[in-house]
Write a structure and sequence with these properties.
- Among the domains are: 212 residues, ANL, N-terminal domain (Rossmann fold, 3-Layer(aba) Sandwich), CATH 3.40.50; 124 residues, ANL, C-terminal domain (GMP Synthetase, Chain A, domain 3, 2-Layer Sandwich).
- It is 30% helix and 21% strand.
- The protein has 20 helices and 31 strands.
- Strands 12-11-8-6-7-14-15-24 form an 8-stranded mixed beta sheet, sandwiched between helices. The chain has a 7-stranded mixed beta sheet with strand order 5-4-17-16-18-19-20, with helices on both faces. Strands 22-21-23-25-26 form a 5-stranded antiparallel beta sheet.
- Bound molecules: 5'-O-[(S)-butoxy(hydroxy)phosphoryl]adenosine (WT7).
- 5'-O-[(S)-butoxy(hydroxy)phosphoryl]adenosine (WT7) binds next to helix 11, strand 20, strand 25, strand 26 and strand 28.
Length: 694
């Protein structure tokens, strides 16, 4: 239940008058009124919002039909039966033609190097998207086909995503930090017919040979008897196969030339790419010929929009599948209300398009609102630790959305690098990805936001598609570390272990009682896994996997994962996928991974390994194991600690008790209930072999 009034205590952060003036939801009463309407009459609430978008054919059947109860049959969610649309048409054509926003800037692109920037208007984006949509069609890509996208943060990534949606193809973006093995696994799982990648890119001063990794992934696919039709390569670093470097340095790309071969940006880097003429094609060669007119494919409200892989507790990533209509409505609406979007805003989300935050709040939500965004290729510490604040001043950013891990990283360098820049354009701040500790919240609020910008701590998941628990800038007084209240249409509950709903002050499992428009529809190719992962534990509810508590004022506080997942720098990993990488090493008999607190990453990986007989635990082995995980999953999964564990704590049935290992990693002696432990003697040895932790 939402309380009638917001609490008024002095330790809360209330919106300043300039935030309240003109806000879409100016106060708590208005929030509550809209919330009740959205949950009691979803048809009226979402129906009104749907009218702002273009539908090729209107809804004819039921507005909402669903089953959340596995004991009653298959899980399904269907909205607005009969309605057809195209999401790309709504994001681009509608904004260019009906809203007359053709000349408005859609993206300011800021490269890894500060000199390297460009901008693209709505009209230009539409042209590029139409051209690439035609390219895809000419390559034989049809409605329902999957297209893998393995690209850095560049405008072309957005072009590819929207071109797919224009022709009803399903994009599967794989974060460019994932390894060849991870990319291969994802291409195989979704049987992609085409891959789009880039020659390479820089992360700070580190060059990444993306094409090389993509080649290896495709080779691995071939080894497993699967071939993608084509690999389309965007020339981003500007090197050619033959000559490599040129003498031009850091040339600024002109705004509308993404179809041309872009000029070289570096003279210093000799990237050698291998060209496999039977698969590889240059992007610019294909774009030269393509027409910039392309009739959209009209899709059903429930047609698949995209797949995005997220870690699963079995170790095999889950292809989370979203649907066209619901994702449009929900990302657009959350973007508008949570960031209190106004037409003159300049919005910047620092996420990567390879994660759900990039999908929902760099691409779909902002474009659906006709917003102007900054898209940033670089990292917060290059060329110096003021980079983010410099960009905020450069583009007069009003709305800034980032992750707690970035805030904690920059906090380390003190206030001086922040205060070099005025940041006076800022109005609203946001965070996402993990619980934010009050210390980081206060620094973000006081130092970055000059104590005048409310912070939207948005709790959500790849699976939810958009914000679930979140403040609204003017309406909800803030408590540092709380994601506050549910967004419109969201019905949270807190359950105890036996599945009873807890009222009032309580702590337990966070679940949702009813569907919201952008709930995932299935796991690609495995509907049963969708049902068991999210609906089996508590019949009738969508289970988030997060713990949560409700305080005396009705505020929700996310306490973190309560399953076998861990959150490193805002990215979910499963203990199982890390363990299976470790076990591949010839010296390892068994492995168990737990989370350990980390001052910047939030959590990091602490691994226990049992060696095979006759093998020795050495520094070299530790390095090899870390490399193994990097190679299998990617750099984000690199373990911080690897401990020798001649024996692991297990139950009598042989299940590893990670709960106990977590305590050992943290050097906490109170192990709780150990009655199910089969052999207590392993514990002492484990404490003795602990890694020295920070
Ligand atoms: C998990 C989802 C949603 C986009 C980024 C991550 C954690 C996310 C918060 C927050 C506390 C949060 C949860 C969730 N999480 N946002 N504001 N406060 N925890 O997407 O990789 O699907 O991870 O991230 O544990 O379940 P994801």
């Amino acid at each position: 239940m939402i309380p009638d009034k917001a609490p008024v205590e002095k330790d809360l952060y209330h919106a300043a008058p300039e935030v309240v003036n003109g806000a879409h939801v100016p106060n708590f009463q208005k929030y509550k009124e809209l919330y009740l309407q959205s949950t009691q009459n979803p048809e009226e609430f979402w129906g009104r919002i749907a009218k702002e978008y273009y539908w090729k054919t209107p809804q004819t059947g039921k507005f909402l039909d669903y089953n959340f109860d596995l004991t009653k049959g298959k899980i399904y969610i269907k909205w607005m039966e009969g309605a057809t649309t195209n999401i790309c048409y709504n994001l681009l054509d509608r904004n260019v033609h009906q809203k007359k926003l053709g000349d408005k800037i859609a993206f300011y692109w800021e490269g890894n190097d500060p000199e390297d920037c460009m901008q693209v208007t709505y009209k230009e984006l539409l042209q590029q998207v139409c051209k690439f949509a035609n390219v895809l069609r000419s390559q034989g890509v049809k409605k329902g086909d999957r297209v893998s996208v393995y690209m850095p943060m560049m405008i072309e990534s957005v072009v590819v995503m929207l071109a797919c949606t224009r022709i009803g193809a399903i994009h599967s973006v794989v974060f460019a930090g994932f390894s060849a093995e991870s990319l291969c696994e994802r291409i195989l799982d979704s049987r992609c017919s085409l891959l789009v990648t880039a020659d390479g890119f820089y992360r700070g001063d580190k060059p990444i040979d993306l094409k090389h990794i993509a080649d290896e992934a495709l080779r691995k696919c071939r080894d497993r008897n699967f071939r993608v039709g084509r690999c389309i390569v965007v020339k981003h670093l500007g090197v050619t196969e033959a000559t490599g470097a040129t003498d031009e340095t850091c040339t600024v790309k002109a705004s509308s030339d993404t179809s041309q071969s872009p000029p070289a940006k570096r003279s210093c880097y000799n990237l050698q790419i291998t060209w496999n003429a039977d698969v590889d094609i240059w992007w610019h060669d294909l774009m030269k010929e393509a027409s910039d007119k392309c009739e959209p494919e009209w899709c059903d409200f429930e047609d698949p929009l995209f797949i995005l892989y997220t870690s699963g507790s079995t170790g095999k990533p889950k292809g989370v599948q979203h649907a066209v209509g619901g994702y449009l409505l929900y990302t657009a609406t959350t973007f508008k209300y949570v960031f209190d979007y106004k037409p003159d805003d300049v919005y910047w989300c620092t996420a990567d398009v390879g994660w759900i935050t990039g999908h929902s709040y760099i691409v779909y939500g902002p474009l659906a609102n006709g917003a102007t965004s900054v898209m940033f290729e670089g990292i917060p510490t290059y060329p110096n630790v003021s980079r983010l604040w410099e960009i905020i001043d450069k583009y007069k950013v009003t709305t800034f959305y980032t992750a707690p891990t970035a805030i904690r990283l920059l906090m380390k360098y003190g206030e001086e690098p922040v205060k070099k820049f005025s940041r006076k354009s800022l109005k609203i701040l946001g965070t996402v990805g993990e619980p934010i500790n009050p210390e980081a919240w206060l620094w973000y609020y006081n130092v970055v936001g000059n104590s005048k910008c409310p912070i939207m701590d948005t709790f959500w998941q790849t699976e939810t598609g958009g914000h679930m628990m979140t403040p609204l800038p003017a309406a909800i007084p803030l408590k540092p570390g709380s994601a506050t209240f549910p967004f419109f249409g969201v019905t949270p509950a807190i359950l105890n272990e036996t599945g009873e709903e807890l009222e009032g002050m309580a702590e337990g499992y966070l679940v949702f009682k009813k569907p919201w428009p952008s709930i995932m529809r299935t796991i690609y190719g495995n509907h049963q896994r969708f049902e068991t992962t999210y609906f089996k534990k508590f019949p009738g509810y969508f289970v988030t996997g997060d713990g949560c508590k409700r305080d005396k004022d009705g505020y929700y506080w996310i306490t973190g994962r309560i399953d076998d997942m861990l959150n490193v720098s805002g990215h979910l990993l499963s203990t199982a996928e890390v363990e299976s990488a470790l076990i591949e090493h010839t010296s390892i008999a068994e492995a168990a991974t737990v989370s350990h607190p980390h001052p910047i990453k939030g959590e990091c990986l602490y691994c226990f390994v049992t060696l095979k007989d006759g093998h020795e635990f050495t520094e070299t082995l530790v390095t090899e194991l870390k490399d193994k995980v990097r190679e299998k999953i990617g750099p984000i999964a690199t373990p911080d600690y690897v401990q020798n564990a001649p024996g692991l704590p297990k139950t009598r049935s042989g299940k590893i008790m990670r709960r106990i290992l977590r305590k050992i990693a943290r050097n906490e002696n109170d192990l709780g209930d150990t009655s199910t432990l089969a052999d207590g003697t392993v514990i002492e040895e484990l404490f003795k072999n602990r890694c020295k932790t920070a």
